[in-house]
Every structure is written in C-alpha cells, then in structure tokens.
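Entry 12.
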Amino acid sequence: MGVDPVVKTWGRRQNAQVDHAQPLLEVDDVSRRLGGRDIVRDISFSLARGQVMGLLGVNGAGKSTTLSMLAGARTPSRGHIRLLGQDLNQAPASLCRHIGWLLEHAPLWPELTVREQIRARAQLAGLRGKAVSQAAEAIIERLALGELARRLTGILSQGQRQRVGLACALVHSPDLLVLDEPGNGLDPMQTAELRALIGERARAGCAVILSTHLLHEVTAVCDRVLIVHQGRVRHEAPLQAVASGWRITLAEAASPERVLALAPVASAQPHQGGLVFEITLNAGADAPALARAVVAAGLPLSGLVAMGSDLERTFMTIAATRAPEAA
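Predicted 3D structure (tokens):
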C-alpha cells in the first residue's frame, strides 16, 4: 500500500450536506436477539468525525454481530442506530452509501478482475458515470493495486484479497469506516501502511471503527476503546495509555549499531541475539515511519508490536470475568 500525494480524486467528500453539530454515529441501547437469547445487549456509544474507536472482545463476545448492525446488514431487535442524524433502520439503502465495511474475510466475486470488483462496489455505493472510473482508479493507485488490477480475484492470496476488500470499502469515500480484522494476511510493512491509511481517513473527517484481536493495533491507531464481553459493553473510554515503545522482530539477526542508525530510532535494546529489538522512537516518529526505515535499510522485518500499556491489563481483567445472567 504505497502513499501517493498526487492522488487527489480519492478521498474527496462525496456528500456536501453534513451536519457537524452532532455525532456522526449514535448507538442507543441496541440489542440483537437470536435463538431466544440476546447475542448483544444494550450497546450504547457515539462516535464523532475523526475519531478511531477500537472494538475489542474475546471470540463470541458479540463484535461481529455489532459491526454488522452498524453497517446496516442486520437490524437490531431493540434500540436505535443513527448515522448522520438519521435512523439507519428507516433508510438503510441511502445511509449505507455513507458506510464502508470490510468483513474479516473480504467477500469478493472470484470471477471478476480486481478493477471490475472495485468498479462494481463503487456503483453499488451510488457512484455513477465518470465518477465510478475516477474513484476506482484513484483507490487502485492509493493502495498500490495496479499490478493486480487485471487479475481475477479468485486467484489472489489472502493478503491481496484483503487489500482489494479494503479498496472496495474505501472507493466511495465513506463517512463511517467499519473494519473487522483488516490486518488478516498482511505482512508487517502492509500493516504499518494500513495504520497510516486509517490515520489519513480520520484526519479527512471519517469516523473509523476497528475490530481486532490484536491489542497493539488498537494502541497504535485508536483514540478510544470499547470492550464487549458476553454481549455487553464492559469498558468504554478514551485510550489514555500510550505504548512505552515498539518491539521489532527480524528474520535475521542485526547489530544494535545498524538498528540505531535508523532515523526514527532514539534507542534500541537487543534481545535473542539481535533478532528482537525494543525500540524508543525520536519525537515525531511513528510506527509506519519505523517500519519503512527498517525495510529501506534492508533489514528483514517480520514483526512490529507496541509494548506494554494499561489496555492489556484492562482487557484481561474483563475477559476473565463472568457476566451476570440476564433476568
């Protein structure tokens, strides 16, 4: 996923009339009942433009069900979801055009090429005429998918499919971006670029919901966190904890001097004979800059994670508890 500042068509607001005086997304006491029990119960939160919220929970906590309701694919059994001040259940077709949704396993038509796939998604999102081609080509360039544009989607690798799915979610410049495990199949460099892309969309005024099992991904890109356990919200707050540093893992050992020579690095503590380094960054540097510097220096990067924060302790405490049975 390469960043190209020349690309200006993609990312431009498609919808001129937007009310900035209220939250972009409002979720009020939303529940989803299935098979005689609540899969999720009384979920409430709001999200403003520019905010990136991490949605955390163990397997079966209700994350995917919650995301599908936020994307308009499922209807709540109770409660209301308002997007841009309108009830998502009352006008789902028009409002869903403001949403970009990437599922954990991107659903793609295997018989279409990558370019055809993205153009079709642009049309489904409401773009017409020249806007379809312009938006598709811009997002293909932005995500460096040009070499794959003529390939059939059915023969792509998992990581390639995930990048195409992300392009489909972004092609219409949505106001709300819903990402379910977007890093599936991505290598460390692509993961760092994904973080940069999420930050870019947030700065452009998009609200982002990121669901992941990786706590360090939330620490790296989110400013708020919502933890769901056994179908209920157990923690919802700004993400105050900041990573104390970054841990990189290399496929081949390197000397401390070589790692210290990287421009973003302020200090580097080697472990496991130079295969692992605990990194402190210089002021203004971030994880994507560190990943780019490592790769540019010819070091075989195989892992990049944030080091310790309060989020991990909070999550583990909640995950170990048993919610009270519903009355």
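Annotation: Residues 223 and 240 are 8 Å apart (CA to CA). Confidence is low (pLDDT under 50) at residues 1-21.
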